[in-house]
Amino acid sequence: MLGLKLETDPRWANIAESNLEEILTDHAWCEQKAATNAIKLVSLNSEHVDLVTELLIIAQEELEHFQMVHNIIKARGYKLGPERKDSYVNELFKFIIKGGNKHQSLVDRLLFSAMIEARSCERFKLLSTTIKDKELAKFYHELMISEAGHYTTFIGFARQYGQNVNVDKRWEEFLQFEGELIKSYGKKETIHG
Predict the structure, then answer these.
(1) For residues 95, 98, 101 and 102, what is the CA-based torsion angle, rounded to 10 degrees?
(2) HEC assignment per residue over the chain
(3) CA gap 117, 2 in Å, rounded
(4) How far apart are CA 34 and CA 58, in angstroms?
(5) What is the C-alpha to C-alpha distance for residues 89 and 102, in angstroms, rounded to an integer?
(6) Is the separation of the CB atoms in 38 and 59 below 8 Å?
(7) Organism's domain of life (predicted)?
(8) Cβ contacts of residue 175 below 8 Å, gap of 6+?
(9) d(CA 89, CA 109)
(10) Is 13 in contact with 126 (CB distance < 8 Å)?
């Protein structure tokens, strides 16, 4: 369904599970950034009422996920560490076409968002089926379903608003780029690392 060109090496889940405090802190900040991204898309495209409506829902869900992860961190006696940079997301952002028309910019930003949701979904699935911590396995299974829904929403809006843009071709370009990019990741206890 997601079309990812390279699956995450299952050993990444072992790395993640070896330092739960770090993976949870990184995950919390990923959720905060996802909410911020949805709000940014709203502010740049406020003329599209249906997009604004759906992305406000996503932003709220991402903030709820941030709170859920933070609650797990507190319940386990961990501390929410400082915000983490996400090199994967920063590299993926560089693939967005700069200086194109408004439709191209919107499509690229939506596909960028869909790509992050797709990879997060894939990582959450791996965590849900691999880690020994049953509470977290169940939690990540539920988040996997949510991320899949967000992915579908972003792709759907890219197709809806992709006037004069070959959205399927551009999505394939994103998949190819991300497939090469992800080869450098999967070695740290971070969601995308």
Answers:
(1) 80
(2) CCCCCCCCCCHHHHHHHHCHHHHHHHHHHHHHHHHHHHHHHHHHCCCCHHHHHHHHHHHHHHHHHHHHHHHHHHHCCCCCCCCCCCHHHHHHHCCCCCCCCHHHHHHHHHHHHHHHHHHHHHHHHHHHHHCCCHHHHHHHHHHHHHHHHHHHHHHHHHHHHCCCCCHHHHHHHHHHHHHHHHHHCCCCCCCCC
(3) 10
(4) 9
(5) 22
(6) yes
(7) Bacteria
(8) 3, 4, 5, 115
(9) 12
(10) yes
Q: What is the pLDDT of residues 138-180, one digit of tens each?
A: 999 999 999 999 999 999 999 999 988 999 999 999 999 999 9
67-81 pLDDT, tens digit each = 999 999 999 999 999
How far the first Cα of the chain sits from its last, in Å, is 22
How far, in Å, CA of 85 to CA of 180, rounded?
Answer: 20
Type of residue numbered 147 = E
Q: Could you tell me the two tokens for 114?
A: 């869909």
Q: For residues 11 and 76, what is the distance between their CA atoms, to the nearest angstrom? A: 24
Largest Cα span, the chain: 52
Q: What is the pTM of this model?
A: 0.95
pLDDT of residue 82: 93
Token look-up 């952002």 returns 93
Cβ neighbors of 166 (< 8 A, separation 6 or more) are none
